[in-house]
Amino acid sequence: MNLSEKVSYLKGLMEGLGIDPNSKEGKLFAAITDVLGDAAASIEDLDDEVAALNELVDEVDEDLGNVEEEVYGAEEDYDDDDDEIYYDVKCPKCGEVIGLDEELAEDGEVICPTCGEHFEFDLPDEDEYCDDGCDCGHNHEEE
Predict the structure, then answer these.
(1) Distance CA 88, CA 84 (A)
(2) How far apart are the C-alpha atoms of 55 and 59, rounded to whole Å?
(3) Whether the Cβ atoms of residue 137 and residue 125 lie closer than 8 Å to each other
(4) For the whole model, what pTM was predicted?
(5) Can you say whether the dihedral through the CA atoms of 50, 55, 56, 60 is positive or negative?
(6) Is 114 in contact with 91 (CB distance < 8 Å)?
């Protein structure tokens, strides 16, 4: 049962109870059911519009997927992070962890975007092992 049907049901209940539409209570109930009817109609219109927009978004998403496939090739063939190495450095002042790509990390210094602190850091040696699970690009095989 949709909202409009429920409002109609309430109007029927009101009539079935024999409430005089000219009494104070009858006028109040009639006004309430009218407002509910208007709200139900608006909500049903919005539901229809949302459904139409969802269909349109699905079509655009599908079209975009086709364009991406044409431009980048099959999804499994495209991975732009294969050769990138990222480093995390921690601001000594505020403790914010800042992610840097290899090019930015080679400078050995950074300004914290959170607190503005300028600090220097050292990168690990290429053959140095890191803790398991880190995302630094180093070899994590057992020694």
Answers:
(1) 13
(2) 6
(3) no
(4) 0.44
(5) positive
(6) yes
